[in-house]
Specification:
The chain is of the alpha/beta class. It has 2 domains: about 45 residues; about 200 residues, P-loop containing nucleotide triphosphate hydrolases (Rossmann fold, 3-Layer(aba) Sandwich). Helix content is about 50%, strand content about 10%. The chain is built from 14 helices and 6 strands. The protein has a 6-stranded mixed β-sheet, sandwiched between helices. The two termini are about 20 Å apart.
C-alpha cells in the first residue's frame, strides 16, 4: 500500500547523496524503513479503535439488579469499554497468559477468585481492563457464564471515607458485595487490595468479612497487590492466602516494554 510515508521515503532516496545527509542527522536507511513501519502501525491502531464492537448491547444489562452502592463506590470499566473508552490494552504474552488464567478460574466450579501478584508497574490494572474487554467481545471463545459479564473496580478510598465509624466499613462492604451477588453478572475487582488487609492502629482489616466470601466462592472477585504485601498477608493470615487463586505477573521484557510504549 502506497502511503504518505512511503512517498516521503521514496523522495528522500531520489536525492543524490541522500545517505550523506542522513549521516549528518545520525540516521540511515534502516531508520527510513522503520518510519514507514511506524506509520503503518499507527494506522492499524486507529483502525482498531474505530472498528465496531459487539458488546452485548441493551440486552446485556437486563439482568442487572438495583446497584446504587456499586455505582457510587465502584467504577464500571465494562461500561467504559463498550462506549469506546477505558484503558487501551496491548497484546503482551505475559498479560495474555494471565487473562487466560482468569478465564480458566472463573470457568470452573472452584473458588471464584483470583489475586494478581506482581511488582508495581507490571500491568496488573491493565490486565484487569483487558480481561473486561475480552468478556465483552462477542467473537471471543468464552463460556456462556462469562460472556458480557461486567467488571466493577471498587474505590477503596471512597469506601473507607464513607464509613469512618467502628464497624461501619464492614457493613458497607457487605452491602456492596451483596448487590454484586444479587445482580449475578458482576465481577468485583479490589485494586491495591492490600489496603483492605492492613494491621496496626487506625488500619483497615476486612479479613473477617472477605475471607468467608472468598472461601464460599459464590461471588467472582479479583484482587491485585504487590509481591511483598501478599507475602506479609500470607504470613499473618495463611488461611486468607490459601483461599486465593494466585496469578503471578512477571515484569515485561525489553521488547514487550517497547511495544507497550509504542
Amino acid at each position: 500500500q502506497i502511503t504518505g510515508s512511503v512517498l516521503m521515503v521514496a523522495l528522500v532516496r531520489s536525492v543524490p547523496g541522500y545517505q550523506n545527509i542522513l549521516a549528518e542527522l545520525q540516521l540511515d536507511d534502516e531508520d527510513l524503513d522503520g518510519a514507514v513501519q511506524w506509520q503503518h502501525h499507527l494506522r492499524q491502531l486507529v483502525a482498531q479503535i474505530h472498528q465496531p464492537r459487539r458488546t452485548g448491547g441493551v440486552a446485556r444489562d437486563w439482568s442487572f439488579g438495583y446497584i446504587p452502592l456499586l455505582r457510587r463506590f465502584g467504577q464500571n470499566i465494562s461500561e467504559q469499554i463498550s462506549r469506546g473508552g477505558g484503558m487501551f490494552s496491548v497484546d503482551v504474552a505475559s498479560h495474555t497468559k494471565a487473562i487466560d488464567q482468569l478465564i480458566d478460574i472463573f470457568s470452573t466450579r472452584g473458588r471464584q477468585n483470583a489475586v494478581l501478584v506482581g511488582q508495581a508497574g507490571t500491568g496488573k490494572t491493565t490486565i484487569i481492563h483487558a480481561f473486561a474487554e475480552r468478556l465483552l467481545d462477542a467473537s471471543a471463545h468464552l463460556p456462556s457464564s462469562l460472556k458480557f459479564r461486567q467488571v466493577f473496580i471498587l474505590d477503596s478510598s471512597s469506601l473507607i471515607a464513607a464509613a469512618p465509624g467502628r464497624g461501619e466499613l464492614e457493613n458497607l462492604v457487605m452491602r456492596v458485595l451483596g448487590e454484586a451477588y444479587t445482580a449475578k453478572n458482576i465481577i468485583i475487582c479490589l485494586d491495591n487490595a492490600q489496603l483492605f488487609f492492613e494491621e496496626g492502629i487506625g488500619a483497615v482489616d476486612l479479613t473477617n468479612v472477605l475471607l468467608p466470601i472468598l472461601e464460599a466462592g459464590r461471588l467472582r472477585v479479583i484482587l491485585s497487590m504487590d509481591e511483598q504485601r501478599f507475602l506479609q498477608i500470607g504470613r499473618r493470615n495463611p488461611s486468607l492466602a490459601n483461599a486465593l487463586n494466585r496469578i503471578s505477573i512477571a515484569p515485561t521484557d525489553e521488547a514487550e516494554t517497547l511495544r507497550v510504549l509504542q
